Amino acid sequence: MSQLPSRFRHRLVPALLLIGICWLTASLAAASAPPAITDATTTAMLAAQIDAQIEQPRFSAASWGIAVVSLDSGRTLYAHHADQLLQPASTAKLFTAALSLATLGTDYRIPTRLLAGGRQHDGRLDGPLILYGMGDPTLGTAGSTDWADQLAAQLAARGVRHVRGDLIADDGYFTGPSFGTGWEAGDLQSWFAVPSSALSVQENTIDITVSPAAAVGLPASLNFDPVDAAPPLLGQITTALPRSTSDINLYRAPGTGTLYAFGSVPTRASPQHFKLAMTDPALQAGQQLRQALERQGIHLTGKLQVRHWPQDDASLLARTETVAEVLSPPLLEILQRGLKRSQNLYLQNLLLSVGVHQQASEPTPPTGFTSSEGYGIQALQQLLPQIGIPASASLIGEGAGLSRRDLVTPDALVRLLGYLAAQPYAAALHDALPIAGVDGTLIGRMRHTAAENNVHAKTGSMNYVHCLAGYVTTAAGERLAFAIMLNNYEAPPDGLRASSDVDAIAVLLANYRGRD
After folding, report:
1. In the prediction, which pLDDT does 20 show?
2. Please, which pLDDT band fits residue 500 given cuts at 50, 70 and 90?
3. What is the DSSP string of 181-208?
4. What would you report as the CA-atom Rg of the chain, rounded to the nearest whole angstrom?
5. Which one of the listed residues 100, 196, 200, 342 is annotated catalytic?
6. Structural domain contains residue 32
7. Are residues 438 and 455 in the same domain?
């Protein structure tokens, strides 16, 4: 072989070295990359694939629980610690959904009533006007933004032009605290842990917009919506230098109403938006109704009052008649809104509504006090044996899955899903669940896989808890119910999100081609 001229040798050696490094790197990458996963055609292959996913070393300190059952044949395709109690997070909402449907029915509409507490004559009501909430969580949301004007218009249609009495906003239909059993105090100012109130409005949240001032050193502005729901404010957020790090802090101590604001926001930064839990939804609802009465030309001579549990309103309500009423959407629509977005208020309010109905159905008044939530859980405990779920397999104490005291087995979740799939409303509830890659809390997950627009499932997540429970149709056309629960795990900062690890198993189910 002829020798290259010396002027090219110093260029060729680095080039050959680079080629060698690239080849070695590619070889090592190929050796370390996981083998391509082929679609399983037997349950043994499927089990091996799921085992390989959950037995990775990074899960050594975590707890997996999985159950997969065919809705077509009833056979179990896969189980791993399926009888182990784990924290379900928001997959617990499936129990509330089943309970509310069994107790209240798919078409039940929750009323919000305007009650008159005195005699009406010559366009005048001599007595109080009572805004009585009965648990509608959708009041003031899309389709119901004019609820107050509807009530005021109905009152005006009865000829009332003057109210010689107080306007009383009453949320005493639910008895018990405004937070669920086991909810953490630190969450109670947050939008996801708003008060559960029989008189809820605008999902019991306040929108806060923080905007920097025009010059460095000046206080930033905080705007609240609704304006009249703004809490007392202490402190300020300072406008800082451009391109500095934003440091916005909003704090309200549990059980108090004052909001503390501190930190900084860069000048010329875009407005930043936050949501805060209302401290008194009933008061806000009363204020909105009072404004609606004014718009309808109804003059109120009294003041706005608010009644909360444990204030006794029985004697007040005994002398009233209903003069106006608005109704919620049907229960199935409420569930769809609540399940798609994993809206805690909706499901907690539904549990409390069931509790009120459960209490009313008691043949004899019980001794001692039990909250609406307590009655709702009693009703759930009565339903579970009918589904085939042992009481020891579902330890749930509230309706939203926000409590870390809630414990459920994967097997219990799958049995519940099987029960729901056999009900007359099964198709509607199936569509009410988030759909992978399409909507709700699954809108950004499992896209471009066989699970997209296939998996219909309830998500459940909180710190160290990652769950998914629902339905999937396999590549062979078999309908499955599954529960995938991962507890005591936090993904490494540079690794996959824990939700991706859970989703990977759902994708394996969607790809499954066996039917043995």
Report:
1. 38
2. very high
3. TT--GGGTTBGGG----SS--GGGEEEE
4. 29
5. 342
6. no
7. yes
